[in-house]
């Protein structure tokens, strides 16, 4: 073999060896990027929801309701879906709200009152009765008109009673709390405060009472006048109690407050 060919062959072998050496000492090639598998689409269903906040007592219009996409697996059996009842929106228009809804909350039949049903009877808790008492439209016997539906009140009876004096009898006015922590269902025809109204006046206040309380309330209204005393939210559910260091706390439960010449005194019947 000629020397020139041997030289070319030697150079080629040297170059190949150097290339192999360089390749063996470098970083391995990066692995191929994993192929991301796309998740299957979530089955959706249209659910009837409140288009805006719906207070108790509101009569539903078509604008108050709308269809909203909802994951099919999260649809509660109590929801109204387009798949099970395509006419649910039209059928719900005209019903009254028994319990308030927030915007976007699914509509449920349990929280509605159909037009053919009595609304007051529907919102009245089981075992209670609705009794209306007359109130002054100026608010003189209803905390200035600041009593609203769902507030808690005490019922005060004021009546005349002859009191024996040293020289005969004197007709005195007596004030007595006959019911405590009573829920107000409605003021006049208003069932719920609306549009940010803070003062409501009406000729009647409808209260939720037991049958025995209904009898006592009706009797008290026949021989005296009734007033409502608004309770604080912090006192709701707690019985009315007088402070331990007051004379009222030392008197029996059936003691009466007698107002004579502007001075209040306790008297046991």
Compact description:
With 269 residues, this protein is of the alpha+beta class. It has helices at residues 3-25, 88-92, 119-123, 211-222, 247-250, and strands at 44-50, 65-71, 96-97, 112-113, 129-134, 152-165, 168-187, 204-209, 225-230, 256-260, 263-267. The protein contains five helices and eleven strands, in the order αββαββαββββαβαββ.
Characterise this structure.
The chain contains 5 helices and 11 strands. The protein has 269 residues and is of the alpha+beta class. A hairpin with a 2-residue loop joins β6 and β7 (168-187). The longest helix is centred in the first third of the chain and has 23 residues, at 3-25. Keywords: Signal. Residues 45-113 form the SAF domain.
The main β sheet shows up as: 7 strands, antiparallel
Beta strand %: 25-35%
Which of globular, elongated, flat, extended, rod-shaped describes the shape?
elongated
Number of helices: 5
Low-confidence stretches: 196-200, 242-255, 258-264
Helix content: 10-25%
Separation, N- and C-terminal Cα atoms? 144 Å
Radius of gyration: 39 Å
Q: What is the overall pLDDT average?
A: 76
Give the helices and strands as they follow along the chain.
Answer: HEEHEEHEEEEHEHEE
How many beta strands in the DSSP annotation? 11
Structural class: alpha+beta
Organism: Methylobacterium phyllostachyos
Protein name: Pilus assembly protein CpaB
Domain SAF: 45-113
Signal peptide: 1-22
Provide keyphrases for this structure.
5 helices; seven-stranded antiparallel β-sheet; two-stranded antiparallel sheet; alpha+beta; 269 residues; Pilus assembly protein CpaB; Pilus_assmbl_Flp-typ_CpaB; 30% strand; 18% helix; signal; SAF; Type Iii Antifreeze Protein Isoform Hplc 12; RcpC_dom
């Amino acid at each position: 073999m000629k020397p020139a060919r041997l030289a070319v062959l030697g150079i080629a072998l040297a170059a190949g060896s150097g290339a192999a050496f360089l390749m063996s000492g470098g970083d391995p090639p990066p692995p191929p990027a994993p192929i991301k598998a796309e998740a299957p689409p979530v089955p959706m269903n249209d659910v009837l929801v409140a288009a805006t906040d719906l207070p108790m007592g509101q009569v539903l219009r078509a604008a108050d309701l709308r269809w909203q996409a909802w994951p099919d697996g999260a649809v509660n059996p109590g929801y109204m879906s387009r798949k099970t009842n395509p006419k649910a929106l039209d059928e719900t228009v005209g019903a009254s709200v028994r319990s308030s809804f927030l915007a976007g909350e699914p509509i449920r039949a349990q929280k509605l009152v159909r037009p053919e049903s009595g609304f007051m009877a529907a919102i009245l808790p089981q075992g209670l009765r609705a009794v209306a008492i007359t109130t002054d439209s100026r608010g003189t016997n209803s905390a200035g008109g600041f009593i609203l539906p769902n507030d808690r009140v005490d019922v005060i009876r004021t009546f005349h009673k002859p009191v024996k004096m040293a020289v005969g009898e004197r007709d005195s006015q007596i004030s007595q709390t006959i019911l405590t922590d009573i829920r107000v269902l409605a003021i006049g025809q208003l069932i719920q405060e609306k549009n940010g109204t803070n003062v409501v006046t009406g000729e009647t206040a409808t209260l939720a009472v037991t049958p025995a309380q209904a009898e006592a309330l009706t009797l008290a209204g026949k021989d005296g006048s009734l007033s409502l005393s608004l309770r604080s939210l912090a006192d709701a559910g707690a019985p009315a109690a007088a402070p331990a260091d007051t004379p009222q706390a030392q008197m029996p439960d059936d003691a009466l407050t007698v107002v004579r010449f502007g001075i209040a005194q306790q008297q046991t019947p």
